[in-house]
């Protein structure tokens, strides 16, 4: 399943409401964000029990403020609408472990 772009607070709230979700808060001008994108796409295809989403911080400033995103990329891991982990940066090993642990 591909990484789905989220636009707006309502769409975000609906997306993370139930189940497991990984949200990538990114910026189009962010080099590290571009570097990690293929890894997330690969994971979204292999870990089909988890929903993967991407939020462009420049298009969703209110959502990013509410979710306390201060640097890019920021990855938030949700279970039934609740944040269970946050990772800032592109440490692939940390992301891999967090995705594997999301249950």
Largest sheet: 5 strands, mixed
H/E order of the elements? EHEHEHEEH
- The helix/strand class is alpha/beta
CATH topology: Glutaredoxin
What is the fourth-level CATH superfamily?
Glutaredoxin
* Overall CATH architecture: 3-Layer(aba) Sandwich
Instruction: Report the portion of residues in β strands.
Output: 25-35%
Low-confidence stretches: none
List strands and helices in order, with pairings.
Elements: E1 4-6, H1 9-16, E2 20-26, H2 31-46, E3 50-56, H3 61-66, E4 74-79, E5 82-88, H4 92-101
Parallel strand pairs: 1-3, 2-3
Antiparallel strand pairs: 2-4, 4-5
Structure characterization notes:
With 103 residues, this protein is α/β, with parallel strands linked by helices. The protein has one domain (4-101): Glutaredoxin (3-Layer(aba) Sandwich), CATH 3.40.30. Helix content is 39%, strand content 29%. It has four helices and five strands. A five-stranded mixed β-sheet has the order 1-3-2-4-5, with helices on both faces. The longest helix is centred in the middle third of the chain and has 16 residues, at 31-46. It is globular and about 30 Å long. The two termini are 18 Å apart.
Primary descriptors:
103 residues; alpha/beta; Glutaredoxin
In short, what is this structure?
The chain has about 100 residues and is of the alpha/beta class.
């Amino acid at each position: 399943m591909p990484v789905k772009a989220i636009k707006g607070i309502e769409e975000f709230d609906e997306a993370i409401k139930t189940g497991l979700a990984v949200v990538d808060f990114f910026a189009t001008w962010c080099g590290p964000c571009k570097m990690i994108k293929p890894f997330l796409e690969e994971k979204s295809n292999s870990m089909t029990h988890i929903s993967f989403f991407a939020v462009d911080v420049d298009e969703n400033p209110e959502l990013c403020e509410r979710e306390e995103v201060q640097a890019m990329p920021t990855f938030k891991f949700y279970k039934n609408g609740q944040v269970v982990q946050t990772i800032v940066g592109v440490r692939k090993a940390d992301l891999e472990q967090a995705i594997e642990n999301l249950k």
